[in-house]
Please model this.
Amino acid sequence: MKKQIAWILIGGLLLGALGGCQKKTEGDIRETTVQELPQGLPESDAKGRYGETAVELPQGTENQRVCWFGMGEGGRLEMYTREGDYYSESAADAFRYVYQDGAWEKDENWAGNAAFKEHGIDPMFVTYGSDGRYYLGGTDKDYRYHMFRLEEDGTATEQLKGAFDPEEGRDYGMLPPKFEVLEDGRFLIYDYWQVFLYDTAGNRLLSMAKDFSGTTSDARGFSEGNEMVTVLDGQVVRYDLQSGKVTEAISLDEVGGVRSSAELFGDGAGGIYMATEIGLSHINKGGTLWETLIDGSLNHMGMRSLQMISFLEGDNQDYYGVFCNDGGIGIQMFHYEYDPEMAAVPPSGITVYSLNDNSTVRQAASQFQSEHPEVRVEVRIGVEDGGNVTEEMIQALNTELLSGKGADILILDGLPARSYIEKGALMDISNLVEELEESGQMYSQLLEGFREEEGSLYQVPARFSFPLLIGEEKAVEAYSSLASMAGYQGEKPLLPAANYENLLRETANLQYKELFYEGNRLVDREQLIQYLETVKTLGDQNGAKTTFSEEEMERLWTSNNVVKSGIIESAIQYDDGRFDSGVAEMSGFGSLCIPAEVRRLHPGTLMVPAGDLYLPSTVAAINRSTANEEMAKEFLRCLLSYEVQKEELYDGLPVNRKAMEANVENDRNGFSMGSGIGDYHIFAEFPSREVRQEVAAMIETLAVPIVVDETVMKMIVDGSRDYCDGKESVEQAADKILRTMTIYLSE
Amino acid sequence: MERDRIVKQGRTVKQGRTVKQEGSVKQEQLMEQERIMEQEWTMKQEWIMEQGKTIKQGRIMKRGKTMKQTNGLPQTILAVACLLIWIPLLLMAAASLMPEDELYWRYLSVLELGRDRVRAALLPSYPSAESFIELLIRSPGFFVMFWNSVFQVVPMLAGQLVVAAPAAWAFARFSFKGKRLVFGIYVLLMVLPFQVTQVSNYLVLDRIGLLDSHLAMILPGIWSTLPVYIMTKTFETIPGALMEAAYLDGAGEAYTFLHVGLPLGYPAVVTSMMLSFVEGWNALEQPVTYLKDKTLWPLSLYLPDIAKDKASVAFAAALVTCLLPVLMYLNCQEELEQGVAASGVKQ
Amino acid sequence: MKKRLERWRKALVPWLFLTPSLAGVAVFMGFPFLDVVKRSFMDTMGNGFAGFQNYQAVLDNLAFRLAAGNTLGFLVVCIPTLMVISLGLALLISGSAQKHQNSAVIKNSRTMLVLPLAIPTASMVLVWKIILCRDGVLNQVLTWMTGKLWEVDWAFSRHAFPVLVITYLWKHTGYDMILWLAGLQGIPGELYEAAKMDGAGSAARFWYITVPGLRGTLGMVGILSVVNSFRVYREAYLLAGTYPDSSIYLIPHLFAHWFLSLDIQKMTAAAVMMTAVFVTPAVLGWRIILRRLADDGKDEILFP
Model:
C-alpha cells in the first residue's frame, strides 16, 4: 500500500515538474515561423548575424534631447528633439529631423516649435498618431502637462484639457512619458503605474495597470489595433482595449527577466519585439518562446553608459536604435542590418571573469567589441545579483586556473588575489602599465600602488574611491592614528554609531597603514589589543552595538547591514550636529553632493582625504596561461582607456586622468540629491566646478591602496563579538582571534 | 568438476595408499555434500519462486505473527530516536509554511537580520502556501533544475547497475590474481575527498571534451567505486554453497550472476543505489566545477543560490528537493526488508 | 589442451565481469589519482619538480598538525558512537520487526531515521541555527531550566566540537543503520531459531551469532563512516564559518583553504599521506588480526 502511494506520488511529482516545462514545449510546437529569421544561437562556423552601423546625426544635436523617434507621415523616419536644458527660464526650442536617402535633414519649416512657443509650453513629446495627425506634449510654467494636436494650418489645438491637472490634494499632475493616438482618435496615456484610455471628449474609458521601472522616462508599452502591450508583474501582458482585461501574459524568464529599460514594439502581425541591453528578442502572437535576433552583448545595445530611448523596425527587416548617454544628452543612433556573410558568432574571443557583475567591465566589453567586431568578449559572472558567493564557486574558478584554463582576464574583486600572485597564476603586466603611464594619461601613483617589491606588477585597478573626512580641524586630525582616535576628547563623539562590525571595518580601513600596511600587523598582540580597545572606546562613546533593535536603528540612524567597502556614509549625522565628524566615500561627483553641501552649511568645516588611502575596485589581471595574451592586453588598454573611463557608471572614479578631467568639466545641472531621517532633511545640488576641481586635485595625493584581507577581518569580527558586547575582556578576545589567526597564517 | 580434479589428483599422486585413501574419503564427503547442496539448491529455487509469487500476490511473508507483543521498550527507544531526528525536520517544514512576516518575527536572529528571541514553532501560526507557490509556480528555473537533476542522476544509477554490480560480483565470488590489489585501489579511490581530485578530474573531463554537458556529471558518477564496495561486501555474505550448486547444475557464470547473485544480492544493490541516488541528488562541488553553463545546473545548486531574504522559499525548496529521494526510499523499502536471511540456508 | 583452455577461461571470467568497471575507473578515477600523486611532487602550477618538499612542508605545517589531530579526535569520538547507536537502532528494528509486525513506530522508524540524509545541508543549517544561535532554542531551554541567562553562541564557542558531533550523528545514523540492517539480513534467521531451541539466551545469541555475522559489515560501516566524516565539513563551515573554533578545525577545512589559495601541491601531498596512513594498516595489519579472529581463516577478506 505504502509502495503504491509512493509510486503515485513520484508519478505526480514528475508530472508536475513536466507541467512546469510543458508550457514551453507547447509553445515550441505552436510556434510557426512567420518570418524567415536567423535563429538565436547558431553553430560556431555558421554565417549570418545582425551587424551594427552608426548613423550620422545632423549637426547641432550634440546637446539636444530626443522627444520622439519613429515613423511619421509617409512611413519616413522622423526624430524630434529639444534643447538639452530642462530648467531654463523660458520654453526650450524643439526641432524636427527627417531621414531621407540615408541622411538626416533638419525641417526648417516645422510649425511645431512655433506652436509650443505660442502656448508657452516646454516641449516634452511629439508623436504621429494612427489617425494621421501630429500631436505635441509638454509642460507649462507651473509644470502642468498639456497636449495639442498640430493642425494643417500650423496652429495647435489643446486636447484632453484638464486631464493632466493634479487631483484633489495633490501637488503634481500627471506627467506622462508618452502617449499614443489610436486610429479613431482615442488617446492612450502612459503614466507610471497605469495606462489610461481617453476618448476624444476627454472621458477616461479605461485604466490599465502596468509596472513602474522607477525612472520617470519609463514608457514600456505600445498599442496595435485594438490591443495594448505593456509590462505587468514582471511579465509582458496584452490588454484588450475594449474590455481593459489582460488577455495574455508572457513570461520573460528565458530572456533574463524584466528589464527597466525595455523598448516594446509590435511586428504588425500581433507579435512583440522587446529591445533591452541584452539584445532584441521577438515573440510571435500566441507563442511562448522568445527568439533572440540581436545579441546585445556584441554591440552598443549592451553598453552600460548608454540608455535606450527608442528602438523600431525598418522596412526591410532591419532595425534602428536610438540611445543617449546618462543624463539624456549625447544622442547616438545605430542601424541594424542582417549580414549573411558575417560570422554568426565572432570567430575569436576572450573571456573576462568577475565574481560580481561589474558595469565598467561590461562597458569595456561593448567598447572593445565595437572596435574589434571579429572578437567576442564573454563576460562571465560568478554570482548573479542576490546570490551568495560560495567557496565552491571560487574553488571551481581555481580548478580552471590550476588546469591552465580559465578566463583570459580576471577581475580580482573578492578573489584571493594575493594567492594568485604568489602561486604565479597571473601575468606580469608591468610593461603594459608602464606604456600606459608614459602616455601621461593615467594616475600613475594609483596603478603603482599595486607594484610588488621586486618590481613586477600583476594587477591594476580600473576604478577606485577614497574616504573623505568631514569635520572641524581638531576632529579630522584625530583620524591620524589609532591612539588619537581613541584619545579624542570633544563635545560630542567623534564618529556616528554603527554596528560593531562596520565600526571595526571602518577603523581598519582608516588606520590601514598602522594595521595592515606591508603585512598584517595585527599578529602583534599589543597592536591587536590597541585596535580592539580603540573600536570599543569609539563604540562606547557613540552607542554602537553588535546588533541593534528596530527602535535603536531609528533613533541612531543606523542599521545592522554590513557595508563591505568599510566606509559608512555619515556626513548627514555630522550635519545634524550629533557628532564631531563624518566620513564619506568619494566614488563619483554624484556621491559628493551631500558631503560638499554639508561643508558649505558649516563654515570652518574641513573635507579632506584620509591621508593617502584609496579603495581600489575593478582590479583587473591577466591569467598567466591565457592563449590570447595580446588580445587580453588590448582589453586592459580598452578598460583603462579614456573612452571607457570617462563614463559615469556609479561604480567608482576613473584612474585615467584625462577621463577625470572630463568628469570635472561635465556640468550636470539636472543632478541633485536629497536625504533625510525624521525631521531632518538635506537637499544638495551637483557640486560646483570649483569643488569638483578641488576634490579631483586630492586624487594626486593618494598612493596607498586599502586591501584588507577579508579572512582576517572576518576573524576579528567573529572573535571580538563577545568583547564588544562587554561579556569578556579584551585579552580574551585578542587571544581568541590570535588563535584562529595563527592557524590561518600557518596554513 | 571440482570433484573430478580431486579424484584424479588422488589417483596420480605417487605416494600411494594413504593419499588414495584420503582421496576416497574426500570423494565420499564430497558426494554427501553435493547431495545436500542439490537439495538446498532446489529449496532455494523454490524459495525464489515462492518469493516471486508472494510479491506478485501483494502479500508479504510474515513470520511469528502469533508471538505475543510484550516488549514495549524497543518501541519507546525508537520513538524517542525518531522524535530527536524529526524535531529539526518539523521545524523546517513549519518554517516553509510560514508567510514572510511570521518568519521574520520568529527567526530574525537566525536569518542574521537583527537580534530578537527565536520563537521556534512546530506549527506555523498563519499557515500559508506562499513559498510553495512562489517556488513551484513563479520560478520556472526550479523545474529546469529539477529535470537537470533527473537527467543526471537516473542515467548515472542505470550505469552503476550495469557496471558496478558485475565488478562487485567479480570481487566477491572469484579469487584471482591481483584481486586484492585491485580491490585495494578501489577502496583507496573511494576514500579520497572530492576536493583532492577535483583539478585532476577536471583535466580528464576537459581532455575528453565532456565539460559543460550532463555527461560530465553522469560518467564519473557511474564509475564511482563506492557502490562496487558496498555491493561486494554484501555479495560476499551470500552463502557460497548456492553458487556451487548452480555451477553443478551446469549454469554458466553469467547465468549464475543474473539469476542467483542479483536476486539474492538485491537488497545490497538497492541499498547502494539508494545511497548513490541521495549522493548524486545532493552533489554540490561537481556541478559547480564541471558545468559553467548554468542552464545545466541541477537542483542541488538552487538552494545555495537563494538569497537570505527568501528564507521561506529556501525551506520549501529543501522539502521539495528531498521529496523524490524520500519517495524512492519508501518504494525500495520492501526490497530492503527482504534479506538473504529468508533463504533458509545454513552456512 | 582442453584443460588449458578451461583454465584460461576460468582465469578470464572474473576479469570479464570486472573490465567494464575497471576501464571506466581507470579513466575517471585512476588517472586523476595518478595526477594527484604527480602533483604532490610538483610546484603549484605544475611546472617544476619539487621532490619531497611538499611533504616536508605539510608535515612542518602547524595548521596541518592541528587539523590532523582534531580530525583524528573527531573520528575517534564519532565513528564508534555512530556505529554503536546505528547498530543499536538496527537491532531494535530488525529484532522488533518480527515481534511487532503491526507497530506503526517500527514500521515507520526506518524511513524516519533515514530522512536526514536526503535533506540538503544548506537549509538544514538554518534549522540548526534556530536551535543553536545565541537567541536560540537551546539557550532558552537552559535559561528556563537553570533560571540563569544563557547566551552562548554554541556553534562559535568552544562547545563547537560536540555540536559538530551531534550534527554528524544526526545526519548519518540512518545511513549506517541501513548498512547494518543489510548486514543483519545476511544472517540466516534459522541460526537464531536453532540457537533458541538449544536454549541460548538473547545475550548469547547476540554474541555468538549476530556479532560474528556482522563482522563483514563492521568494516564496511567503519570505512563508509570515515568517508562520510569528510563531508561534515559543509555543515561545519555553513554553521561556524570558514575559520571556526580551533577545536573543530578539521582536515577538510585545511584542504578547502589550501584550495582557495591555490596551494594544491600541499593538498595533494597531504592527501597522499592520508591515504597511505589509512590504507597501510588496512592492507597489512587488519588482515593479520582478522585471520586470527576468523575461525575459518577466509582468505578473501581484505578489509574487515
Summary: Chain C touches chain B through 110 residues (CB under 8 Å).
